[in-house]
Amino acid sequence: MNGVNKTLYIPLYGKSEVSKKNIILKDPTAEHIWEQEGFPLKGKSKSKWLAYYMGMRARVFDEWLHGMMQKYPEAVVLHIGCGMDSRIHRVGGNALWYDIDFEEVINERKKYYEETDTYHMIASDARDTSYLANMPTKQGIVVLEGISMYLKPEELEKMTADLAVHFDKIHILMDCYTTKAAKASKHKNPINDVGVTLVYGLDEPTRLSEAVSNTDDRLASFQFVKEHNMTPDEMVKELKGMEKAIFKSVFAGKLSKSLYRMYEFEK
User: According to CATH, what is the number of the domain 3-266?
Assistant: First the structure.
């Protein structure tokens, strides 16, 4: 796999680790895949702190998605940049669900996941949204976890606009680096350990919503909804002793939030 695709092993390892410790996120599929794959992570990418963070991030996405699926049971679910994530097992239900990633990722993914009448895997660059042509248009729920930072601002805007045009109603949750984090990532980021140094940041979510809404008259109602907390107190409390204190100070404090954010949008 190339550098960007190799980054999928970082959250996979994190989810596997917290699952084995029986904290934050239960993910036996991640445990199994990590045991089979054994990708040689090193340095910061294999730290327990990052594993806790990856587990919390995944659970926040899961809980948001579960709530949206309960509210809109007829919606189509898109997990773009799915990597080897087992969200379909953790949240799936009966929704029409599409996991989307690069061809080499999907080929690897098919070793562990099987398609059904309602679950499909699509091999596609996230920036190429031609796959939407074969999907229902009424309502979409979109998860963009760990992908926005690899897209140039204009690419993120176009992809988001294409999604919002296709669906009559849409709900999107994405995590984003800030520009400060993007600049620092060239020198100090766990993704450096798998050969990735070029990433992009988003400081003001309203800039994305305004850029998208200005691309097409049909998107006038596209808007930023709110920011989500990736390290909720109830999850941090699952850590013990000094680990909880250190994580709360370093990974759930002001410094972390100056580098990494999570935003919800809708139309």
Answer: 3.40.50.150
pLDDT at 5: 53
pTM: 0.92
Low-confidence ranges of the chain (pLDDT < 50): 1-3, 189-196
C-alpha to C-alpha distance for 215 and 229, rounded to whole angstroms? 29
Nearest C-alpha neighbor of 158 from the set 199, 200, 204, 211: 211
Give me the residue spans of the domains in the chain. 3-266
Dist. CA 225–CA 62, nearest whole Å? 18
Query: How many angstroms from the chain centroid is the CA of residue 118?
Result: 21
Q: Report how far residue 261's alpha carbon sits from residue 259's, in angstroms, rounded to the nearest whole number.
A: 7
Cβ pair 23, 238 in contact under 8 A: yes
- Identify residue 223 by its one-letter amino acid code: Q
Rg (CA), the chain: 18
| Contact between residue 137 and residue 34 where contact means Cβ atoms under 8 Å apart | no
